[in-house]
Amino acid sequence: MSDIGSEDGEDQGPNLGTYEGERNDAGERHGQGEAVLPNGDSYKGQYANGKRNGYGVYKFKSGARYMGNYDDNQKSGEGTFYYPDGSKYEGQWVNDVHHGAGKYTYANGDTYEGNWENDLRNGLGTYTYNQTGVQYVGEWVNGRREGNGELLFKGYKFKGTFLTDQPHGAGKYMFDIGVQQLGDYVLEKPVKEGEEEEEEEEDIQKLNPRWQGGQITHA
């Protein structure tokens, strides 16, 4: 959610918002100040040359709230964003988007902690599923599990590669009792009863991963 918007002219007429605070010699907002925007949002924090710069708290009329650093009206640096649905992002921002190291707590209790690029999970990160306690630790591309990673379960884990959010290719299951099974994940189209398989290319996200287990050895 972006709070980008010009505050120019907010106190030049009726229903254009209000501002109380410091100004520079040119009359621009500069230093500590408080503003109520025309749309009902509010901001309390630092200004420089008429724009939000430095630390501030921006409250949205919707109930969302941002507490953190600004650079020329854009969220930049460290900051925490509270969303109306109860989710929260804590971490780095660049040009008003999640970018860098950060932790996102989702409305359902799931969490992701790791690297972000342009508002998407990218690079190394850990996703914890609140309902089951299962964790994915590994690489991400454009918000999806992709590359090398591990799925951690109670008592065992899977280590292998992922493709567009699905386990794919060679991997192994490693059990706490000291054994492991090598094998491969293959992606298959789910076939309903009475339905024939089509040979045309399928969207990989619609395919189901199936484990083909092989040799069992001591870990």
Automatic annotation (TrEMBL):
InterPro entries: MORN. Residues 1-11, 194-203 have a biased composition (Acidic residues). SMART domains: MORN (SM00698). GO terms for biological process: axoneme assembly; spermatid development. Gene3D superfamilies: Histone H3 K4-specific methyltransferase SET7/9 N-terminal domain. Keywords: Repeat. The keyword Repeat applies. One of its GO terms (cellular component) is nucleus. Residues 1-45, 190-219 are annotated as: Disordered. Residues 20-32 have a biased composition (Basic and acidic residues). This is Radial spoke head 1 homolog. It comes from Amphimedon queenslandica (Sponge).
